[in-house]
Amino acid sequence: MINNIKGFVEQLNYEAEVFGKDFEYSGKRVFISGMGGSGAVADLLSDWLDGEIIPVKGYKLPAFAENGDLGIFVSYSGNTEETLSVLDKAIRKGLRCICISSGGALEEIARDRGLLFLKVPSGFQPREAYGFLISAVVKALKIVGYLSEDAQREYSSAVGKLSSYLPELSSEDSKTYEVAGKLYRRIPLIYSQFYSVAVRWKNQINENAKNFAHISIFPEHNHNEIEGFEFPDFFKDKAWIIFLRTDFDHGRVKLRMEVVKEILREEVVGISEVWAKGESKLEQILYLIWFGDFVSYWLALMNSTDPYRIDRINSLKERLKIHTSGG
Hints:
This protein is α/β, with parallel strands linked by helices. It contains 13 helices and 10 strands.
């Protein structure tokens, strides 16, 4: 797994195979449907771009989706039942659809219906293929004319510069290893302004390290969670806060994080900060995401667990097969 994490930049540069007929999209709304690692792509695009990017997670297409809107359906395996359900509804409603997968039912549907389809390499865990899926969605948005030239340049620049951070992120002398050590045998509380960054950290820590983790997004955190540190009593001895910081955090969010550090300092075992590196917003987001991937791997080793083992997810899938899927 460590080699696949190191290969994140190569994935971001990957040119997915394209099948089906190109088209132009001049609308503003883009619905991106996906779950887990595939759905995390929608979160990234929503945080990065100024357009109306709407992540769809679950079985339902939002009721306000209209005939002619753009829908992108991302499932690494191609068999994610929630995504297939949303695609079916989108086709019936008249959305312009793009499908992205390594194969499976999603590819079959796309080819049968003549939908634009981008194929990514197979053979990875979905969370390991995150970079492939990001590059494929970016390419899809470029094909249909949604991605501005400025955004295209920002993506190329961010990915081009990202590889220079590999030495400082990938060794056991790195800050990533140090942060993993802080989280060992503790409950990570991950705070960020950017949902895509926080949720990727959480998902990777959950799946790779088999470790519980919690996220909260600023400034919403300040209106509720900040009061939740009194009970249960044992929580104080188990929780470790991580602030994920960028230069693109809102000015008031930067202030709020500084104040919250002081208010909660005595309510948890400790607090760490990880500051993004890079010039653009996208570069800083990708840096923090990559940082978290390494943290999750080191934490898996510290927990003496196999990061590839996903027994509970597999058990869930097997049990669901027994029942007829609805919706």
